[in-house]
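quick q for whoever's on today - can somebody do inverse folding on this one?? i tried earlier but teh output was garbage lol. tokens:
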């Protein structure tokens, strides 16, 4: 049966993570590619997925595999499972699209994802693709596959959310709507697990601390879409046209978790931007998972002001062993400038302590280089991290991700932005943070890299890790900090 559409997840892990890509960075299932594939299949389309990152295919091998699939339409999906991922993964799009057009110049290519939704016209200008989707994808994919002639501008203009070229200029169809919250179970009926190379995925090194440092097998999925908050550094809602929150029903989602269990997978990432938010969603789902007695090792996102002590027992019983908290900054005025829905009055140390008391580990997310940051305030953030001793800490430099308010502001102020897609990666050689009102980009990046080494070499932190997880995890951390990250900005 001829293939209607091939969904492709590109690979540029070496450029994005440098040598961390060998053993330490996660290789995650492409959730949106699997959701869109299952949705198209439910409508009677013939579909396949090519995960170039999981299969470790370089651009030339990826293009060859796409050619062999012989699909009528190739959709490169560049959603991210955290805010930076879509922009940095455009590195792989750029390399793959060039190879494809050299190998199959007439083969139509559709680009879908967060970055394309934020900058659809720029994507058409910058990349050798035929179509760009602005929106989450289902309406655009369905509409484009219904077009009988992919060169007919009259038909293309009717496809919701579709951008394309007509007489050399970028034009687009009507806006695409969102899948209605009440219809998610029916219209986005889960992931096409059977089309993914599930034996190729691995979780992050820290997530495996609570699973005997066993990183594989691994699965990730969404139970909800979007976020109701308006943090200026975040771009997560770019495909959705604004802040929103929709979730699948707990009755539907427990079927997805049952499938994961049937595959023998225990390591699970709930990739929702905000899992711990609505009780009727996450608490009911946790109760159903616990009732199944699945022995999962789950991590999920929450905010300091959404985590209530009353929730923690249910989360732990479901197998939630890690909560990722957006602490961002240790300084109230710096945090208040960017975090909407403030938690200034909350005691962060106390909340982290309560989470730990219920047997749940904490990943603290910290950002250096927010607009109001100085060297002194960044040091205060590092001091807070050292005081909290979260079982793991993510140290970010502030970026102007396309689709975020910070990006719009940076463009308006004519601030220097990354010259390449990999410049949006926290771990890349080309990493290019935003300057603050008081510091240059190099100052921010230098501090971030020093903070990372300081934290993971701190004797107090390492003692806590050893007491919690054992010497094997300490050895894993020692191996991680020995891997150098080269930085163009710091070599200049």
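ok took a stab at it. sequence:
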């Amino acid at each position: 049966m001829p293939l209607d559409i091939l969904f492709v997840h590109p690979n540029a892990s070496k450029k994005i993570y440098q040598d961390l890509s060998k053993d330490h960075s996660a290789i995650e299932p492409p959730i949106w590619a699997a959701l869109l594939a299952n949705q198209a299949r439910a409508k009677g389309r013939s579909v396949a997925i090519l995960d170039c990152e999981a299969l470790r295919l370089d651009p030339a091998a990826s293009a060859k595999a796409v050619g062999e699939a012989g699909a009528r339409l190739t959709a490169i999906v560049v959603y991210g499972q955290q805010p930076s991922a879509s922009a940095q993964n455009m590195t792989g799009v750029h390399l793959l699209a060039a190879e494809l057009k050299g190998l199959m110049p007439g083969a139509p290519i559709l680009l879908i994802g967060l970055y394309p939704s934020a900058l659809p016209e720029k994507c058409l200008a910058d990349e050798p693709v035929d179509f760009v989707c602005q929106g989450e994808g289902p309406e655009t994919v369905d509409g484009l596959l219904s077009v009988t002639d992919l060169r007919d501008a009259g038909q293309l203009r009717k496809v919701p959310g579709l951008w394309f070229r007509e007489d050399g200029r970028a034009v687009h169809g009507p806006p695409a709507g969102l899948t209605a919250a009440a219809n998610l179970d029916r219209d986005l009926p889960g992931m096409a697990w059977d089309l993914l190379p599930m034996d190729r995925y691995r979780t992050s090194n820290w997530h495996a601390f609570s699973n005997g440092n066993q990183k594989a097998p691994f699965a990730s999925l969404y139970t909800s879409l979007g976020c109701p908050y308006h943090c200026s550094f975040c771009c997560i809602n770019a495909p959705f046209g604004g802040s929103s929150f929709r979730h699948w029903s707990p009755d539907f989602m427990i079927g997805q978790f049952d499938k994961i269990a049937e595959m023998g997978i225990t390591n699970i990432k709930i990739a929702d931007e905000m899992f711990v938010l609505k009780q009727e969603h996450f608490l009911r789902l946790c109760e159903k998972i616990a009732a199944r007695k699945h022995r999962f090792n789950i991590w999920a996102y929450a905010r300091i002001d959404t985590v209530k002590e009353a929730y923690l027992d249910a989360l732990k019983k479901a197998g939630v062993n890690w909560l990722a908290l957006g602490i961002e900054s240790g300084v109230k005025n710096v945090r208040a400038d960017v975090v909407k829905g403030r938690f200034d009055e909350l005691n962060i140390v106390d909340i982290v302590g309560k989470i730990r008391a219920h047997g749940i580990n904490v990943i603290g997310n910290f950002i250096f280089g927010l607009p109001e940051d100085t060297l002194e305030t960044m040091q205060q953030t590092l001091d807070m991290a050292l005081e909290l001793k979260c079982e793991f800490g993510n140290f970010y430099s502030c970026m102007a991700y396309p689709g975020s308010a910070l990006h719009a502001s940076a463009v308006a102020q004519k601030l220097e932005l990354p010259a390449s897609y990999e410049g949006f990666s926290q771990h890349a050689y080309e990493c290019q943070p935003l300057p603050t009102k008081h510091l240059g980009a190099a100052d921010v990046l230098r501090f971030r890299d020093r903070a990372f080494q300081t934290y993971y070499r701190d004797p107090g932190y390492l003692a806590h890790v050893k007491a919690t997880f054992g010497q094997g995890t300490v050895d894993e951390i020692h191996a991680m900090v020995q891997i150098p990250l080269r930085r163009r900005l710091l070599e200049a």
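fwiw The CA atoms of residues 225 and 275 lie 9 Å apart. also Residues 85-103 form the longest helix (19 residues). so keep that in mind when u check it
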